Amino acid sequence: MNFKKTGLPGVFIVETPSFEDHRGFFMEVYQKHKFHNAGLSANFIQDNHSFSKDAGVIRGLHYQLNPKAQTKLVRAATGVIIDIAVDIRKGSPTFSKWISVILSEYNKRQLYIPKGFAHGFCTLTTNTNVIYKVDEQYSPELDRGIAWDDPDIGIEWPITHPILSSKDKKHPLLKEVENDFS
Q1: With bands split at pLDDT 50, 70 and 90, how would you rate the model's confidence at 182?
Q2: Does the residue 35 lie in any domain?
Q3: What is the pLDDT of residues 84-130, one digit of tens each?
Q4: 5: helix, coil or strand?
Q5: What CATH number is attached to the domain comprising 167?
Q6: What's the pLDDT score for residue 24?
Q7: Range of the domain at 144
Q8: Which of 22, 62, 63, 106 is the catalytic position?
């Protein structure tokens, strides 16, 4: 496994080798000791699976407040997404900055997103399956979100009229959200 730093401290692109032959491929998507050796010590306890039938679906920007904040390890099992991490740690030199990474069934990359970052993605293909590990259970009372099109963040999404859930249509701007990260 190869752990590549990004422009946001603590956020890593994880490249996993794939062993291919005439039948298909095999890859190890997570090995606890390799992540720990790279300084990534999340104790993942749950796997989540998101399916989007259409291209142009945006999910996010999501996060959970402490003490149930989540570290995530995200990958696209089928299809292609642009995955986004936004630093929401108050006082951080990269507060409100974001990175984007293409994750796909073809490049087999993953994105490691620690606590203190909002997360979202946009599907670029139909029938996209996104699978991600988290180190805390979902907590509805601590679930929060930020508007996908917050002009103060300025994410360069590949679309202007996304398909959104009713929940994601109502998220406030970063300057208005409840945020206990510093």
Answers
A1: confident
A2: no
A3: 999 999 999 999 999 999 999 999 999 999 999 999 999 999 999 99
A4: strand
A5: 2.60.120.10
A6: 93
A7: 43-176
A8: 62
